[in-house]
Amino acid sequence: MKQVPAAFGVFLLAAAVSASVQAQQNTPLPQDAAAEEERAKDAVDLDQVIVTGVRTPKAVDKIPGAITLVSREEIQHTLLVTEDATAVLARTVPGYAESSQAMSNTGETLRGRIALRLFDGVPQGSPLREGGRNATFTDMGMVGRIEVINGPSASEGIGAAGGIINYLSKVPEKEGHETTVASRYSSQFGDDSAGWKLGVNHAYKQDNVDFLGGASVIDRGISYDGNGRRIGMNTSGSVSDSEAKNLFLKGGINFGESGEQRLQATLSHFKIEGKGNYIQVEGCRYVDEDCPVPVTNTSERGQIFGQKAEFNDFKQYALKYTHGNFLGGTLGVDAYYADQAMRYLPENGDDKQLVKVDDDFDEADRIFDQSEIVTEKKGFRIGWTRPELFNVSGLELRTGIDLVKDTAEQRLALTNRLWVPPMEYESKAPYAQLTWDIGPVTLSGGYRREDGDLHVDSYTTTAYRNSVDVQGGGVQYKENLVNYGAIWRITDEWSVFGSYGEGFGLPNIGIPLRNISVPGQSVDRIADIAAIVVENTEFGVNWRGQHGSFSASHYDSETPFGTSLAIDPNNNDFILTRAPTRIKGIEVSGDWRFNEQWKVSALYSRIRGKTAFWAAAPNGDYGAGGLNKPMGVLDINPDKISASVTWNFLPNGNVTLGATRLADRHLSGSDVRDFDGREFEYEENTYGYTLFDLGVNYETERFGKFSLGIENLTDKQYILSWSQLEGFQNYWAGRGRMVSITHTITF
After folding, report:
1. Positive or negative CA dihedral for 160, 165, 166, 169?
2. CA-based, 20 to 30 A from 313: which of 29, 301, 483, 688?
3. Distance between CA 732 and CA 288 in Å, rounded?
């Protein structure tokens, strides 16, 4: 067992924020799901807000950690100004990084680390080959709310080093049939910038049966920056010039005595696909004879011969059974299957060529190729919750086991070459967790045993990596993981909490596997595929009153063998660096309602991270370096301030003005390795910007709701923060002003 800070000796048990996310209907009495949803709408009344990102629903003021609840209203407001899947997180979650405005979510971390994204309990993407696309998996119009459990959580087992982002689909709320039709038109007033959406949702609830179905189509044009110039197609995947189709079906039935049992089935199929009307024209960022005036990447009409459409194609199927009175507790059984594929845009980089690019390479032979990641996962979860354990008031046990099988590979699609070999990970993870309510104090704690096996077949790397043969093999991942903490509700308005938690993750294994270039390597001797175990300490305070709320927290997260992204100077592509990391941060958020007409909200986040310039030598010649290298924008977001003000100018009309500011940041560090006297230096400068957006809603009794949304209200020209760092064809401006008109009618 690992050593834990002595300051937590006052806490008797280990923290147990479980991340095996259940759908909103998964309650001890399933027929109360809609009622729980209604109570959860008011984020100020925390003792009535139910978080389902735990094994059983739990009041948020009994969880010792920083929880961010993104309400349906906040999602809907963001959808007025943009259909970007992660824009609502960037605006409402303090520790969430800048939105990439693309299909790719490169650089979009939570508190400086990769978060586990779940949609109704099913993981999106694969930790074996994190492709930076797992945030674009459904039409956000199907999402009822989002729960963000900040900080590492061992309870899910894999992938929650930064926390858990739990997307919950909507649930039927009214008896009988209800159909909602949403249509949207948006434009930046360029000839090819127009986009539109049409979505239909149907909900039904009667007695013990409920159903929710939805279908939508989103068509997007090309994007323009604040200078009226087309933005280049993101090489990791654009939402510009694309079409997205979504189908979602969920049905359930409650049965048994008092409806205490429930069976629910879910199907989700989402596909976003590029239309292939544009090719990227690379810009230049440094003034020299080849670049007299720096310009960002742009797009021009045309196609690359033989190219295939880029896409995200996510399918998932889930079956859930709950029993509200099983051996004196609540039983939950979940089974799921997910098939997810991601294809990227064509690239002609050196690493995509059929032969090695050297002095003898003929540029006439240069080709474009497209990579494609395919993942498949099967999961089975059994959980049982027993309140009043041993007849002790307030003592609750949650226990169970999670089983998962995850496979992934990456190919170069146009030439049908293997880039990342097929990988298979199987895991079984039993857990036991306790919470104890002792008057105004809640103690929580738990233990999870992660027992996983990775298997990789033998393979040959690409020509860029010298076409070396790599011997396949297996790696075992075994880890004992604990969490513990406490929350003290001092008064009806004030509470404080402290917690210690451990997170477990895999380090994007596909990248080190595909980058092997030295002969004689075998999978089971590659140090860079070792697991990531993160230890996080956090303290915080919450206040909630009649007119508002306030929360603040400080966290300290470290791992002796973490990951950070860097740019390969040879090909400007991403490489994974394994070395110690430590990340510290503070978060503050709050809101205040002056009266029925006026409300303001604000948040602030500051994150700083350090890593080492070098990892320990595999042969033991030298140890890892000290924490002297600052972690840059690819991992950690600059300081963020966000605020909004809402005016209800009529009982059926409101307007919201929002602003988000990313600050300037200048980082530098250096170190010298005693072993060989090698000197290391790092410097990074990013420049901030402030964006405003506006949303207006007006509800009519007969004709539905009409909405106006304006993104980047002042039409500001800016460079995305993570794009300010030199990389392969990554010099992109942010989107300029976009105006959207939305109509929603329910009948």
Report:
1. negative
2. 301
3. 19
Amino acid at 8: F
| HEC sequence for 367-387 | CCECEEEEEEEEEEEEEEEEC
Nearest residue to 69 via CA among 149, 153, 163: 149
Residues of the chain above pLDDT 70, percent: 89
Residue 243 CA to residue 410 CA, distance in Å, equals 24
Say what the pLDDT of residue 712 is. Answer: 97
Q: Which residues contact 268 (CB under 8 A, 6 or more apart)?
A: 119, 120, 138, 246, 247, 248, 249, 314, 315, 316, 317
Length of the chain as a residue count: 747
Q: How far from the centroid of its chain's Cα atoms is residue 726's Cα?
A: 24
**Stretch (H or E) spanning 75:** helix 72-81
Question: What are the structure tokens assigned to 407, written together?
Answer: 């496979």
Q: Could you give the CA distance from residue 315 to residue 212 in angstroms, rounded to a whole number?
A: 17
* Helix/strand/coil (H/E/C) assignment for every residue in 416-466: CEEEEEEEEEEEEEEEEEEEEEECCEEEEEEEEEEEEEEEECCEECCHHHC
Structure tokens at 488: 């003290």
Q: How many CB atoms lie within 10 A of CB 714?
A: 14
Task: Identify each DSSP E strand in 22-115 by its residue range.
Answer: 50-51, 58-59, 67-70
Report residue 129: phi and psi, to 5°. Answer: -145, 85
Q: Which residue has tokens 């064509």? A: 346
pLDDT confidence band for 619 (50 / 70 / 90): confident
Q: Is 676 a residue whose pLDDT tops 90?
A: yes
Q: Please give the structure tokens belonging to residue 493.
A: 């308005």
* Residue 13 token pair: 């048990």
- The verdict on pTM exceeding 0.85 is yes
Cβ atoms 41, 475 nearer than 8 A: no
Rounded Cα distance between 153 and 163, Å, is 6
* Three-state DSSP class for residue 389: helix
The three-class DSSP label of residue 339 is strand
Rounded-to-integer distance, Cα 564 and Cα 682, Å: 14
Q: Around 461, how many Cα atoms within 13 Å sit in the side-chain half-sphere? A: 25
Nearest to 502 by CA among 195, 151, 222: 151
Residue 44 has pLDDT above 80, yes or no: no
Lookup: tokens for 580? 């110690």
Residues near 46 by beta carbon (within 8 Å), at least 6 away in sequence: 59, 60, 61, 542, 544, 549
- Helices and strands per DSSP (H, E), number in the chain: 4, 36
Cα radius of gyration (the chain) = 25
Secondary structure (DSSP) of 141-195:
GGEEEEEEEES--TTS-SS-SSEEEEEEE----SSEEEEEEEEEEEE-SSTT--E
DSSP β-ladder status, 116-119 and 163-169: parallel
CB 508 within 8 A of CB 130: yes
> In whole numbers, what is the pLDDT of the chain averaged over residues?
88
Per the CB < 8 A criterion, the answer to whether 243 and 263 are in contact is: no
**Which residues lie below 8 Å from residue 189, measured CB to CB, with a gap of 6+?**
739
- Cα separation, 109 vs 129, in Å, equals 16
**Range 21-60 burial, b when 16+ CB lie within 10 A, else e:** bbbbbbbbbbbbbbebbeebeebeebebbbbbbbbbbbeb
**Are 244 and 20 in contact, with CB atoms under 8 Å apart?**
no
What's the DSSP call for residue 510? H
Amino acid at 76: Q
**Token output for 10:** 């006052």
